[in-house]
Amino acid sequence: MSAMRPLSEAECYARCYGWRGGDDAVKVLRSAAIEPDPRLDPSEAGERLRRLLELRLDAREPEAA
Question: Quick check: 37 and 45 in contact, CB under 8 A?
Fold first, then answer.
């Protein structure tokens, strides 16, 4: 059995995690690109979400014991 050559840090990373960088990388978008719904302020939106969750929870079937 022959000894294998030492790997560089970049080669080790590539073997463990795959290729990194280039055009297929994740792109981060600015949050300003997503505009909030002007009809609801944050407290109204949260309250609406809470009510919708309660309706979904009430509509569920009871869990089998």
Answer: yes
The token duo for 64 is 């089998």
H-assigned helices in the chain: 9-17, 42-59
Q: What is the pLDDT of residue 20?
A: 62
pLDDT tens for each residue of 1-16: 678 899 999 888 888 8
Q: At CA 36, angle to CA 34 and CA 39, rounded to 5?
A: 150
Q: Nearest-CA neighbor of 56 among 39, 42, 64, 48?
A: 48
> What is the SS3 assignment for 22?
coil
pTM: 0.36
Residue 43: C-alpha distances to residues 1, 9, 12, 47 (Å): 69, 49, 49, 6
